[in-house]
Amino acid sequence: MSTDWWRGAAIYQVYPRSFGDANGDGSGDLAGVRTRLAYLAGLGVDALWFTPWYPSPMADGGYDVADYRAIDPLFGDLAEAEALIRDAAAVGVRTIIDVVPNHVSDQHVWFGAALAAGRGAPERERFWFRDGRGTDGELPPNGWISEFGGSAWSRVTGPDGRPEQWYLHLFAPGQPDLNWGHPEVVAEHEEILRFWFDRGVAGIRIDSAALVAKDERLPDVPGTPHRGEHPYVDREDLQGIYRSWRRIAESYGPDRVLIGEIWLPDAERFARYLRPGVLHSAFNFDFMAAPWDGKALRVSIEQTLDVHDRVGAPATWVLSNHDVTRPVTRYGREDTAFAFDTKRFGTPTDLALGTRRARAAALLAMALPGAFYLFQGEELGLPEADIPIDRIEDPMHARSGGLDPGRDGCRVPFPWSGTEPPYGFSPRPVETWLPQPVDWGSRTAAAQAGDPGSMLSLYRTALRLRRDRPDLGAGDGAGRFAWLDLGPDVLAFARGDRFVSVTSFSGGPVDLPAHARVLLTSSPLEDGRLPSDATAWLDLG
After folding, report:
1. pLDDT level of residue 189 (50, 70, 90 thresholds)
2. Segment 94-107 mean pLDDT
């Protein structure tokens, strides 16, 4: 691939704890990933994005990092990570890792030193320690709300057992926020980037990238913040932080990439992170969260392409990740959009309908200009798993008062083969860290590998075509994009002079435009016509 490979790449998200277990303890590890590199290369992906593999108490699935220069023993060690990066590169697959600059674990050496040093100590200046409000400081310093629900502040206890200062955590209490106004915080993260680029990683995915900088006054959030004036979202300081990171990445060569996780409803503000010299790319959450509706998806696609084109950045197309209800389940519900505050237990789902739509959505997304991301198990059409309440680990469940089932349902260990748990995930019968459904025997990678009608076969074929055809992928030159008018309930567009993608939301079969041959369909044609909730790829000849 060229140095700007990231503009049109297919990138596969690996959740290490749930991908492959080599040592038989019921949790995935890096050795388990290494044994499956042939599968990943054969699937047709260009890079692997690993969610955090660092030492962590797992207060939030590894996003509470205790040490950025080591590997959690659950997954292996640093030598294993270095071998995985090398082995993946040897089969043509690059490695992207997660960095979480907003916060660290409460087990990080810095936070331990801050607690031990006490009120007013310089060690506390790396975080946001503040005295509380009220007569005895019994109230939080402000009214900020955690992303997981409840107050964003927790109070510490002094050596004498008395309540003391409060510290800020925009996520779980085990994830204290860092103060990016402190030079040691800035320098430390720049060294972390160099540490991993030195070990051959191709890119860094930046978690919660829009939340890192804070207004040092820590004011309450106004009812309607002006653009760029929220006390902790989308602060202007971020531009300088990421420009510095960009210079570090480019010092290792033009093929290194920075990818932001940026949830911003304002398209103009979002685009500022993708200007030349800032980040290379960012996740497209608007498209991922959109309902299965042709008009809504067209609006999202048009806005996405317009915003990215103005700053010369590639769009990204994402259907799922480790935080989101799996497409097969979501698209089978009455409300097919995604939002964290709508997740509830017992939501009725038509899995057959959801699977049909998920297949169509996959081809739609893979045909669009830019990069395509897929989350492990998406290529198998795995549904969201129901996790028994006593096995739920995600803090979102507890912080919601038990109303939200959390995100564990999409993080269940990968089913590789066999007819019963652990489905080849572990080398011997063992209880996996999250329970696997007992009816996944037909959904394993092995069961789908030889079935031309399976979700796995669809993904393999689509990814191969996407890589082989010059009119797909990045979308410049021969792959230019143009909408086609095939009716109000059809999304159709051309890539270049020969390729056309057609997705039907019509409720019944629709005619396809004139073509030389059908390259691929998500569902069988009906007398040459495209059924509803289906996508066809056409070669115009």
Report:
1. very high
2. 98
Any domain includes 175: no
Distance CA 531, CA 541 (A): 23
Which residues make Cβ contacts (< 8 Å) with residue 23, sequence separation at least 6?
Answer: 29, 31
Instruction: Provide the pLDDT confidence category of residue 478 given band limits of 50, 70 and 90.
Output: low
For residue 271, give the 3-state DSSP assignment. helix
Beta-carbon count within 10 A of 485 CB: 7
What is the pLDDT at residue 477?
Answer: 55
Cα–Cα–Cα angle for 170, 176, 181, nearest 5°? 90
Selected catalytic residue, list 261, 323, 384, 404 = 261
**428 and 502 share one domain:** no
Instruction: Report d(CA 257, CA 1) in Å as an integer.
Output: 14
pLDDT at 255: 96
Q: Are residues 347 and 493 in the same domain?
A: no
**Among 365, 265, 271, 382, residue whose Cα is nearest residue 318:** 365
Q: Which helix (H) or strand (E) holds 447?
A: helix 445-449
Q: Residue 104 contacts by C-beta under 8 Å, 6 or more apart in sequence?
A: 64, 65, 66, 110, 111, 175, 176, 178
Q: What digits encode the pLDDT tens for the residues 110-144?
A: 999 999 999 999 999 999 999 999 999 999 999 99
Residues 6+ away with beta carbon under 8 Å from 522: 356, 359, 360, 362, 363, 458, 534, 535, 536
Q: Of 143, 168, 193, which closes a domain?
A: 168
Q: Are 381 and 328 in contact (CB under 8 A)?
A: yes
Same domain, 328 and 358: yes
Q: Which residues contact 248 (CB under 8 A, 6 or more apart)?
A: 190, 193, 194, 197
Find, among 227, 230, 192, 235, the residue nearest to 210 by Cα. 235
Active-site position among 72, 177, 207, 533: 207
Q: Assess whether 34 and 93 both reside in one domain.
A: yes
CA distance 171 to 68: 19
pLDDT at 356 over 60: yes
Cα(434)–Cα(417) distance, integer angstroms: 17
Give a yes or no: residue 472 inside a domain. Answer: no
Same domain for 352 and 330, yes or no, is yes
pTM summary value: 0.95
Q: How many CB atoms sit inside 10 A of residue 186's CB?
A: 16
Pairing mode, strands 517-521 and 129-130? unpaired
The answer to whether residue 360 sits within a structural domain is yes
- Reported residue count of the chain is 541
pLDDT at 402: 83
Query: Where in the sequence is the domain holding 133, given as residue range(s)?
Result: 109-168
Known active-site residue 261: yes
- In angstroms, the CA 289 to CA 310 distance is 23
485-529, pLDDT tens digit by residue? 999 999 999 999 999 999 999 989 999 999 999 999 999 999 999
**Residue that has been written with the tokens 């500022």 in this structure:** 272
Domain count across the chain: 3
389 within a domain of the structure (yes/no): yes
